Amino acid sequence: MAKINFGGTIEEVVTREEFPMEKALDILKNETIAIIGYGVQGPAQALNLRDNGFNVIVGQRKGSKTWDKAVEHGWVPGKTLFEIEEAAQRGTVIEFLLSDAGQIALWPTIKPFLTKGKTLYFSHGFGITFKEQTGIIPPADIDVVLAAPKGSGTSVRRLFLQGKGINSSYAVFQDATGNAKQKAIALGIGVGSGYLFETDFKKEVYSDLSGERGTLMGAIAGIFEAQYEVLRANGHSPSEAFNETVEELTQSLMPLVAENGMDWMYANCSTTAQRGALDWKKKFKAATLPVFQELYKSVATGAEAKRTIETCSKPDYREKLAEELKELRESELWQAGAAVRQLRPEKNTVEASMIN
Ligand SMILES: NC(=O)c1ccc[n+]([C@@H]2O[C@H](COP(=O)([O-])OP(=O)(O)OC[C@H]3O[C@@H](n4cnc5c(N)ncnc54)[C@H](O)[C@@H]3O)[C@@H](O)[C@H]2O)c1
Ligand SMILES: CC(C)(O)[C@@H](O)C(=O)O
Ligand SMILES: [Mg+2]
Ligand SMILES: [Mg+2]
């Protein structure tokens, strides 16, 4: 474990230096890893595990679109691709990678195959933490672990193929065998994590639900829309408004932040911009802090879990989500964005080759 100073707090982090792939392969050498769920994380983790030399099988509903997707990815029916029940029976590690709402529906199917000494693996603490709502209560004689990539499954696979890795958290909820932590880390390394930090199931889900509703997805999209609308209401063209709101951020400034921090990005902008940004940063923080506090409370009380389960358990949940994403895509802001992306000199837009 590497001891890292995170702004004054020393935390232990697992890196590939002291936990190389060979060690992960040795720890899991007698395991058959069954991937149940083939949406976004499922394919990424299954393919990375397979490419890393682990013994992996996939469980899907025969005839489903995801069964066909698994076949396209080289999983062989009857050899590495099975019906869900057979995969859960054959697997000694069950990677439960259905959607969080889908896990509830499938739990009665999976539970009987979680026999003594097996490992139940998640990539989110949702199902276990909100057990009153999900009903997911594992048998006491199995290991229950998580490795949660802090990023999209599409990035998990892309970074692996680029020889890089994504950062992930890991946690042990139940250690029946005395080896749960080693298996959790080995699985995290096997699915393509570059390094792993420790958490617990509750902290993982509280932080994750907050982050994706906040700066990572919800807040950022809302701020983009607010600024774009003000610029457009004051006569700025769609291209000028989009470039000033999104394109410059993703193509110039955020990469600088990723490279060397916010202050370095600021220092690489004009003093005019630095002065103004430092002044207005305070105002935006003051305006949004109450919203983030409200968000965290909604997560911690289980209200966000309730909404997720209620909406994403409906038969037409995907269609409803697709409708709202279509509305977003067809908004003037994101239509302007599509035009701007085509204008990028290097046309570096990676084809939208999402995993799912
Ligand atoms: N999407 C990501 O990049 C990401 C990142 C980190 C963690 N996670 C976590 O990983 C897990 C899987 O996430 P995902 O985004 O890959 O899931 P997803 O929403 O893509 O769903 C995975 C599969 O579950 C199936 N499914 C959904 N409801 C079902 C039901 N009722 N019955 C049978 N199958 C059903 C879907 O068809 C899909 O094939 C979740 O716990 C999620 O929170 C996801
Ligand atoms: C990719 C995210 C947002 O980090 C993940 O948490 C998810 O739920 O998809
Ligand atoms: Mg997340
Ligand atoms: Mg999430």
UniProtKB/TrEMBL annotation:
Classification via Pfam families: KARI_C, KARI_N
Segments forming domain KARI C-terminal knotted: 200-347
Organism domain of life: Bacteria
Gene Ontology molecular function, alphabetical: isomerase activity; ketol-acid reductoisomerase activity; metal ion binding
UniProt keyword Isomerase, yes or no: yes
Residues that, per the record, bind Mg(2+) 1: D208, E212
Any one of the GO BP annotations: isoleucine biosynthetic process
Enzyme Commission no: 1.1.1.86
Occurrences of domain KARI N-terminal Rossmann (ranges): 10-199
Residues binding substrate: S270
Keywords: Amino-acid biosynthesis, Branched-chain amino acid biosynthesis, Isomerase, Magnesium, Metal-binding, Oxidoreductase
SUPFAM superfamilies tied to this protein: 6-phosphogluconate dehydrogenase C-terminal domain-like, NAD(P)-binding Rossmann-fold domains
Residues at which Mg(2+) 2 binds: D208, E244, E248
Needed co-factor(s): Mg(2+)
Recorded metabolic or biological pathway in which this protein acts: Amino-acid biosynthesis; L-isoleucine biosynthesis; L-isoleucine from 2-oxobutanoate: step 2/4; Amino-acid biosynthesis; L-valine biosynthesis; L-valine from pyruvate: step 2/4
Family assignment from sequence similarity: Belongs to the ketol-acid reductoisomerase family.
Protein name per the record: Ketol-acid reductoisomerase
Organism of provenance: Chryseolinea soli
